[in-house]
Amino acid sequence: MFGLGKTKTIVGLDIGSYAIKAVELKIKEKGESVQYEVQKIGYEPLPHDAIVEGTIIDSTAVSETIKLLFENAKITNKDVAISISCNSVIIKKISLPSMDPQELRESIIWEAKHNIPYPYEETNVDYWEIKSSRPADNMVDILLVAAKKDKIANYSNAVSMARKNLVAIEVDIFSLINAFEINYPELFKEKTVALINMGANITNVGIVEKGTPQLFRDLSLGGYFFTENIRKELNVSFEEAEAALKGIPGKSLNADQFAAVLTMNIRDLLDEMEKTFSFYEAGERRERRIDQIFLSGGLALIPNIVNAFELKFRIKTELFNPFRSIKYDPKKFDSIYFNEMAPVFGVAVGLSTRKVE
Ligand SMILES: Nc1ncnc2c1ncn2[C@@H]1O[C@H](COP(=O)(O)OP(=O)(O)OP(=O)(O)O)[C@@H](O)[C@H]1O
Ligand SMILES: [Mg+2]
Question: Which ligand ends up closest to the CA of 224?
Answer without folding.
Answer: 1
